[in-house]
Amino acid sequence: MPPLTHPQSSTSITIGLNAVIVAVTAEVPRILTVKRTAQHFAALDALESSAPAGDEADALPFGPLEPERHHTLERGLRSWVEQQTGLQLGYVEQLYTFGDRFRTAHMEAGAPWIISVAYLALVREGDIVKTRDVQWRDWYGAFPWEDWRSGRPALIEESIQPALEAWSEAAPEPRTRQMRQERVEITFGLHGAPWDPDRVLERYELLYEAGLVDEPHQGLSTLPPGSSWPHFGRPMALDHRRILATALGRLRGKIKYRPVVFELLPPSFTLWQLQRVVESLAGKPLHKQNFRRLLERGGLVEGTGQYDLSTGGRPAELFRFRRDVLRERAAPGVGLPGVAARG
């Protein structure tokens, strides 16, 4: 779209559209990414002329709003996604608007002020035109500290905790050191503080502020000069990993009170398949019997009378989402029962 300019300002404003497209395949939550060097990113590169040439980092599907052909923001998003990936989206909801003036190191003075409206889309992974420019990625590759399905990730104690404690100690004032340490403990569940799965964005932003992730910085890091710490997770272009962290936290919260998880499942599924998809999103194992009791009390699923014979053991009954629950209750989520013990 033509950049908007205030009559009394020389700063132009451009509306961008980002898509976080989520699927769960073989118990792996995955994100559809594109490369910024692809031909279909010419429009984005034109908007961000200060971005370094040849940037090969993964990016979320993105495009500028074009009022001449996009009658709504969502239609514009769907159009860009189909153009860039060949995928026609189903379930889509607006996620958040990212509008800080200098959101990344690339947005220098004089460049357009890009306000990005991000959307969350849930799909069942299907055929896409697989090229080096369009790929499904494991979302825990971007946030390895978020996957607790096999227990607390060793990365936290071995690398993240010492790095963040060093960052806290590097603060020049005692009060600042205390505030940083408290923030580290609460955000990452250290020294007796509970782990909150929904704090995905807070954890990423803390690592970003401490200079521990690979995305370019705005001079926020206050680690001592010459300090060297391991970098965590797969980086993404611009501030797209921050957008992805926002989406992961939103989805983790939403599965508790909305039946969005069924958008990621085939029309019929076993209860074990449903549990594994929920676990993959929540990043933690669930107690099987408690989970099934929640499903039964909530009336979320109903049997189809058919069975999955491919389990290798006793055939498992196939279920489907019971859509009448949408009329019966205001918050028909699957809930998250207690964590199961894993030996």
TrEMBL record:
Give the species this sequence originates from: Entotheonella factor
UniProt name for this protein: NrtR DNA-binding winged helix domain-containing protein
UniProt domain NrtR DNA-binding winged helix: residue ranges: 261-321
Q: Which SUPFAM superfamilies match?
A: Nudix (SSF55811), Winged helix' DNA-binding domain (SSF46785)
Query: Which Pfam families does the protein's record reference?
Result: WHD_NrtR
Q: What domain of life does the native source organism fall in?
A: Bacteria
